[in-house]
Description:
Blueprint: E1 14-17, H1 19-27, H2 33-46, E2 50-55, H3 75-82, E3 90-96, H4 102-105, E4 116-121, H5 126-138, E5 142-147, H6 155-166, E6 172-177, H7 184-198, E7 204-209, H8 216-226, E8 230-233, H9 247-253, H10 262-275, H11 285-292, H12 298-304, H13 312-320
Parallel strand pairs: 1-2, 1-8, 2-3, 3-4, 4-5, 5-6, 6-7, 7-8
Amino acid sequence: MKQAPWINYRPEIKILDCTIRDGGLINGHMFEDGLVKAVYDTCVAAGIDYMELGYKGDKKIFAPDKHGDWKYCDEDNIRRIVGENDSPLKLSVMADAEKCDFKKDIIPKEQSVIDLIRVATYIHQVPTAVAMIKDAKDKGYEVTVNLMAVSVVQERELNEALDIFVQTDVDAIILVDSYGVLYSERVHDYIKQYIKAAKGTGKEIGIHAHNNQQLAFANTIDALVAGANRLDATMSGIGRGAGNCPMELLLGFLHNPKFNLRPVLQCIQDYFIPLREQIEWGCLVPYFITAHFNQHPRSAIELRAGKDKDEYVEFYDRWNEA
């Protein structure tokens, strides 16, 4: 008889909520404390494994008068929300290669409530990412690496990058569909490729999916089925541009009894429905168009911010003729 694995669960699967970090890309990380605390409390109540509070942005690059606290995640500001984080929830921040003064701004783990440093890198920044991984590990943190914009990385370069990462002390390697381009078959192939590269190292594989083609949830599930154990999601799918895999859909799919969907629905009802009146996110036609042409969504974001935000055909023709 054919098995139906989707009615069971893998206990090793870990869910990371990146609502405040990725959602903050819409509004300069200027979320009010009440919303950040609500997401934190929701993650605790829902049994989510990690919450990503924001970035470790370099204040010499990102001016503090133009960004909120969650662009920098200074220790005092984190503790203002979570105290000593007396909960099973682990806390994460993202450190972008070449946009983080990691030696200075990432303090030793024994002085911090942060548990996980997520190093984010483009393919040309891999040497910097390797130095950041070593620095964070030496300071006592869990460390993962997000290799971004994988859809524009050449096969030879990707294999070389994976070979380099598996030789580091990184705990997990995350597949990132930055442009929301990938279909399920390609996600499956990438995850198998990542798993093969990491075989025998004990390193886990994960996915961070974007929703430009309304496939973030489906692609996250495809990655899970292919063997990924680290899954990213956000409340109500919030995130820059088309957003991310919605947490409510992901928890609704998983059968692990440690996860509780109800607090997530309450948080969305109380905070994210009102927030949609202030900021925009979700799969709109311009974001599909940039994904169709395998492009960063920044041009679609610019379009949506202008007076001609619904001029879809002109936007399409601009890329089609490029």
